Amino acid sequence: MAQQLKCVFQKYPLLRAQKHIKIQKKQTMSLSHFSMFADLSFYRDGEIFLGEIQIRLLKQVVTDGSIHAAAKNLKISYQHAWHLLDKVNRLSPIPVIIRQKGGKDGGGCTLSHYGLIIIQMYEKKVSDIALFLKQTNSDFKNCFF
After folding, report:
1. In this predicted model, what pLDDT tens digit does every residue of 17-53 receive, in sequence order?
2. Alpha helices of the chain — where are they, by DSSP H?
3. Are 133 and 38 in contact (CB under 8 A)?
4. How many angstroms separate the CA atoms of 140 and 128, rounded?
5. Looking at the DSSP assignment, which residues form a beta bridge with residue 110?
6. For the segment 69-117, what is each residue's pLDDT rounded down to a tens digit?
7. 115, 58 in Cβ contact below 8 A?
8. Which residues neighbour 81 within 8 Å (Cβ) at sequence distance 6 or greater?
9. Residue 108 region, left (φ>0) first, then alpha (ψ -120 to 50), else beta?
10. How far is Cα 61 from Cα 18, in angstroms, rounded to an integer?
11. Contact, 85 vs 97, CB < 8 A?
């Protein structure tokens, strides 16, 4: 029987190549598995409105009460933080950040009610995506492409 198969593979090189490919696929499939990852970002008119960094910054502003302190705690420059939040406000239909000018007591900023809703909505969507990815990655464990 082995002699007959050898003759068939010699006569038809394509079959020999296919047999080799099948063996290679079997060996590599057992060594790795597929998985899926995702990041959530919201865009408006082609510009990023909200992403992970913007949400982290907004949450830190709630905690610290100022862009300067939030930037310092997140280890990003004040200028970068200011530009990110300015863009969020500019792209938002309703103000997200309410700024207070500096003075005797210093400036600061707070989030509007709409800003707090945006954070909650973003975190809910991230949670939904995480659940979807967990289920999908579980399905991938038994999947061979």
Report:
1. 444 444 444 444 444 567 778 889 999 999 999 999 9
2. 2-11, 13-29, 52-64, 67-74, 78-91, 113-140
3. yes
4. 18
5. 98
6. 999 999 999 999 999 999 999 999 999 999 887 766 667 899 999 999 9
7. yes
8. 57, 67, 70, 71, 74
9. left
10. 60
11. yes
